[in-house]
Design a protein that fits this description.
288 residues, mainly alpha
Length: 288
């Protein structure tokens, strides 16, 4: 029987491929650690802070009897209407995209010294944040590009598609439960001030106390908003009515149907505005 010949080129080709792969990974990791990306990523917190501020402002107007769309698309539309809004949208798009890219890089290269469940938890959190910041970047891009999106319509369309199948229905229940859990987590972080563990400091004196107050109130308000959205998703799914699943705007407006709902909505609106201001300052103090 003829013996198989060993081809030394196969081993050298594999080693060359490994070297190329390693070089690419090093280059990507270096880019993730670059000062330019870190600066742009910090600007992403400012951009998302503007979104929260305008959502809160619109919520206050709705509580006062005015019309408005209190969600991400409504906030970006308000931002676009400000002087220099078009340029600001592009800047916010780049900033949010950079922050999403940074969070994605942490999924692959972050927390190398950690192990086990703790490391997995951090990576899953980074992945979720990357998706959220990426969605914000997409909204900014759609408005900057002259093709604005409607968050409420997208939420209803998504719900209708999911409700068309049993697996999709279960996915909606899971999504609603996840939003309820996220709301509880935000509330817990706000009340206990655990969010400060992710900060490398805060302003001194009265500015620092105001920063803390906005963080606590803002986290609690965002937690309440997420609870409302999650509950709305579950109710809409149980009733098999996608029209009731209108995202954040529908959830906030649902407060008006409850006793003292106007006051609750006003409190959430002020809290979200505070969270927005907190996020602007957070851009400087957040650990990256």
């Amino acid at each position: 029987m003829a013996k198989k010949r060993h081809h030394p080129n196969h081993g050298s080709a594999a080693r060359a491929a490994d070297r190329v792969e390693g070089a690419v990974e090093d280059a990507v990791e270096d880019a993730a650690d670059s000062k330019v990306l870190h600066t742009a990523a910090r600007a992403g917190y400012v951009a998302t802070g503007l979104i929260h501020f305008f959502i809160g402002l619109i919520a206050l107007r709705i509580a006062g009897g005015s019309a408005g769309v209190a969600d991400q698309s409504g906030a970006v539309a308000q931002l676009a209407a400000t002087p220099g809004g078009s340029l600001l949208l592009w800047i916010c798009f780049v900033a949010c995209a950079a922050l999403a890219a940074f969070m994605a890089s942490q999924v692959f290269f972050g927390w190398k010294g950690s192990h086990g469940a703790r490391k997995l938890k951090k990576k899953l959190k980074a992945a979720g944040q990357s998706l959220l910041f990426g969605a914000a970047a997409g909204t900014f891009y759609s408005f900057a590009n002259g093709q604005p999106t409607n968050s409420r319509e997208k939420s209803q369309t998504f719900s209708a598609d999911m409700m068309a199948s049993t697996p999709g229905t279960f996915l909606l229940y899971a999504l609603g439960a996840g939003l309820l859990a996220a709301g509880c987590v935000y509330g817990f972080l706000g009340v206990t001030r655990r969010y400060e563990k992710a900060l490398r400091g805060k302003p001194a004196g009265n500015a620092g106390r105001a920063f803390t107050a906005m963080g606590v109130f803002g986290y609690c308000a965002k937690g309440l908003a997420l609870l409302a959205v999650g509950l709305l998703v579950i109710v809409a799914t149980a009733r098999h009515d996608p029209s009731q699943s209108g995202g954040l705007d529908a959830a906030l407006k649902a407060f008006l149907e409850q006793p003292f709902g106007v006051w609750v909505l006003m409190g959430v609106g002020v809290g979200l505005m505070g969270y927005g201001v907190f996020s602007v300052f957070r851009s400087r103090y957040q650990r990256l």
